[in-house]
Design brief:
- By secondary structure, the chain is mainly α.
- Helix content is about 70%, strand content about 0%.
- The protein is built from 13 helices and two strands, in the order H-E-E-H-H-H-H-H-H-H-H-H-H-H-H.
- Strands 1-2 form a two-stranded antiparallel ribbon.
- The chain is globular and about 75 Å long.
- The mean pLDDT is about 85.
């Protein structure tokens, strides 16, 4: 029987939800409204004088080749980060779930990287892949003969920020995949093994379908992470370079708004970025969720 809370007075109920409402209004709706208003304004660099210009800011960004380039970079970047982080997290969770000894210490160590700030994560990968002093970079150049140089080569820089961003998110995915794997009934796995199904067949036919709700949730969260929360990595490692090869939409907003002081264009880019992530999320719910299996 479901227990329900009953309030003798509406005042107490409203009083209890007031702090959350105030936080939401202050840190979400008010900034969002300010951004929408600023996106149709032409402002001086210090925001003292504003002129209503209708949709000129939006027309300006969609006719800017650099902005259109950043849109393509963002889509490829978010897809690469999400796929790499999810697949790696799933692989590590599967291996950790089958560990016979020291399960708890192994799982704890695998979760720790999520506590590292994005900027620190970027610095760690910079020390590994910098062409001058990076351990891995020196090995790649001297042992494999590959001219690795993310400072000057846009493709190398893009690969480096993808690796750094995905590494930060692997631990997050690992936690959810571990919870999902532990919820898979062992009786189904044992029955399939008795019928002669191998490990890969058991994983593909039983474990993966039962993990589909977790997988769908992580797909949405990883795409949002790649769009918004990778700013610290990019700012620390490449600052959008070289030649704009790692300038994602969220970093373009920073460049135009905080460095270029073009407040109207920056606000318009923020609105487009929010609209883009909403559209991508809705498409995921519309087409991907159909293949999610919520029951055994």
């Amino acid at each position: 029987m479901i227990k329900r809370s009953h309030f003798t007075s509406r005042f107490l109920a409203y009083l209890l939800i007031t702090p959350q409402i105030l936080v939401t209004l202050t840190f979400f709706y008010w900034p969002a409204a300010q951004g929408l208003l600023q996106s149709v304004m032409l402002s001086d660099p210090f925001g003292q004088r504003n002129q209503f210009v209708w949709l000129d800011n939006f027309i300006g960004i969609f006719t800017d080749p650099l902005y259109l380039k950043s849109v393509g970079i963002t889509l490829v970047f978010s897809f690469a980060v999400a796929v790499l982080a999810i697949l790696t997290g799933l692989l590590i969770a599967t291996m950790a779930n089958r560990a016979l000894i020291a399960k708890t210490p192994i799982r704890t160590l695998l979760v720790w990287p999520y506590a590292v700030a994005p900027a620190i994560s970027g610095i760690l990968w910079l020390f590994l892949l910098h062409p001058s002093f990076g351990v891995i970079a020196i090995f790649i150049k001297r042992r494999l003969g590959i001219d690795w140089n993310p400072v000057l080569n846009g493709t190398d820089a893009f690969i480096m920020v993808v690796l750094a961003s995905a590494w930060k998110q692997i631990s997050y995915n690992f936690v959810f995949f571990m919870a999902g794997l532990q919820a898979v009934p062992h009786s189904l796995i044992e029955a399939a093994a008795m019928d002669g199904a191998g490990p890969f067949r058991r994983f593909w036919a039983i474990t993966l379908p039962l993990l589909s709700p977790t997988l769908f949730f992580l797909m949405v969260m990883n795409v949002i992470y790649a769009f918004f929360e990778t700013f610290g990595v990019i700012h620390t490692v490449t600052q959008g370079g070289p030649g704009g090869a790692t300038t994602t939409l969220v970093y373009k907003v920073y460049q135009d708004g905080f460095i270029g002081l073009n407040l109207g264009s920056s606000a318009a880019q923020s609105v487009v970025l929010m609209a883009l992530i909403v559209i991508i999320t809705l498409l995921q719910f519309k087409y991907v969720e159909r293949k999610v299996q919520y029951t055994v």
